[in-house]
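It is worth pausing here to work through a concrete case rather than discussing structure prediction in the abstract. The textbook approach is simple: state the sequence, then state the predicted structure, then interpret. We follow exactly that order.
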Amino acid sequence: MHRMHVVALSGVVAALLTGLEPGVGSAATAPWSIARTPNPHARNGSLASISCTSTTVCVAVGNHVNLSGLQHGLAEVWNGTRWTGTSVPTPKRGLAATLFGVSCASATDCVAVGAWVNNGPFEVTLAEHWNGTSWSVTPSPNAGADQRMLLAVSCASATFCAAVGSYFTVSNTVQTLAEHWDGSTWSLDPTPNPSGATYRRLDGVSCVSATDCEAVGSSDANQVLAEHWNGSGWSLQTVALPSGASNSSLAAVSCTSATACIAVGGACLPPAQCNVVGGGPTSPLAERWNGTSWAASAPVAPSGVSAAYLDGVSCATASACAAVGFSTTDFGGTVTLAENWNGTSWSQQTTPNAAGSIFNSLEAVSCASATSCISAGGVNYSGTLAEQLSGTSWSLLHAADPGGTLGGELASVACASSTACTAVGGSLIEAWNGTSWSIQRPAEPVGFRGVSCSLATACTAVGGYLSGVGADRSLAQRWDGSAWSVQSTADPSTSGNVDLSAVSCPSATSCIAVGMFETSSSYCLGPGAGDSPLAEEWDGTAWSLSSVPAPSGAVCVALTGVSCTSATQCFGVGSYTDSANNSFTLVERWNGTAWSIVAGTDPGGGSNQLNAVSCASATLCVAVGVSGFQSLAELWNGTSWSVQSLPSGCCALTGVSCPSTTSCLAVGGHIAERWDGLTWAFSQPVFPKKAIDYSIVADSCASATACTAVGHGLDVLIPAPVLSSGGGIPSTGGGGGGTPVTLAETYSG
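Step two, the predicted structure:
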């Protein structure tokens, strides 16, 4: 799902060739070594564009993640009966690639465009040609500094294609990009950009001839962007939006003549508000070009949904167009959407969705006739989706998904001994036997956040899952040495989300799990954020709720870490915010009967939080987190908490383990800190060579000289357009993108 659901990569590839393996062989890194961890494999893919020259010949393109965990271009051919995968080359020394658009002048002449990551590493334009038998890379020019990508292409003939997209400048603004193909070479074409804008992008293009093309997209100046090609240059056009429209964007355009085009996208229209994640459009948008001006038409806004967006359009005639996209459901998923234009008005059509899938989206459509169209998209972020319109009815088609890795992330680890560790993250559980890691099968593939093992044959994993009522509910599963089984947790009565973040089991019959829950009116944002702290107790038979007090004046509260030295001695840590959105550390104590708030020590400022805690005894605990942008560690001496002096300074600490009162290891991101009972010392973990944004998030120590740390990394992913909090305007960066891969390291003291 390339337009709405894929996070853009911005800058994380800069570390690709530096290795991120500092000081190998030095005293600082000698205690650390990487242990290879498996990642689940499955068939996957997503289709972003499709072009049909007849009812029996279509070419669809997109991307998939291969067995190496890298994004690779995907192309499939439809023969009227079935889909067949084709081999798509990546340019030499290419690290990753994706295809965003395709257009076919004939069954044996197609052009696909996208982007690839070279060994610079920079993202550059990609163009490939299909001759009916095989694909070949055709060199394409680039502009700007980075993130050059072609998002759409339209071929009026075998000797003329126009491709559009965007690129980043050296000043970190985004400009429109356009190129044209003359049958043998690509050439850059200057494009105008709205004055005052810092982000402009062209998402769709349609050419009726070599001298007449329409391109559409988005701009943070006037939000909707349209440009016209007259054979020698591009010029800006004015787009008349519906009254009151805001946060608008156009994703695709289809022209049947120089005086008949339809463009589609999304907007926020009164009385609706931009209430989807990121503040994106909530209503479908359509515009008509009559050869002189653009005018808004009104697609049907699906009833009973919180948002809808049209991502693709194809017109067989001026009075027969199909537009496709998705709409969001009440429980946060998405379902396919298709609308028909009859030359006068729009009408919604019924479309199927993949069985058992929460997320379904149609990204593109191509119509060979008024009653024959093929649409393409994705399912659950990891599977292709194709549908066929025959007459007035849509039906599912089985598209081909190549094999690849689903990736994985490890969020928590527990070691009963140096040869028995269990790590969890998402729906993944892995076990360490002292020699190697292996994947274990959970009782149900749900979202794990924390794990604790009192014995090698007694582990408990907790987290949350999306229930049928559309809200997260807590979960717990138990390992008995041979298999995992589901335990019934005791959730508070609420229609809001409930989530467990961490668990600590001092014995096989005693566990405490902590997290958060929210009321139906909660507005606390971010993973694990709620308005009330949550704690549940396991007595060897059942889970029960424990009442946890919230600090006076607290608005958003969550417990993220817990450590128990016995069934009657636990500390839970986390954070809370006040009405001014200042963040403070939170420490709560369990005495076997009740929870009580323990006075902590904030270093100052309004941004402090504790992420994890580990207790070696009732009189020695260490809690770690972040204060502002600085690492934070606090020590419990049996009476009070005190802030510790750390050598690293930078970055959040997310995990800590204290196997004794004179030994603790704290980790977070790219750093580790070791405590010897008196002072903290910096310890540099190692990371895989050519790593991208690897991070250690948790650790567990069986002894002072036997620790295991786990986390995740990102393999290369080409950036893709998304809608940001600006609403309808693509994200300009921030955050990383890629296939998550598991990481585990051992520390030998």
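Step three, interpretation. The first strand starts at residue 32 and ends at 35. Confidence is low (pLDDT under 50) at residues 1-29, 722-736.
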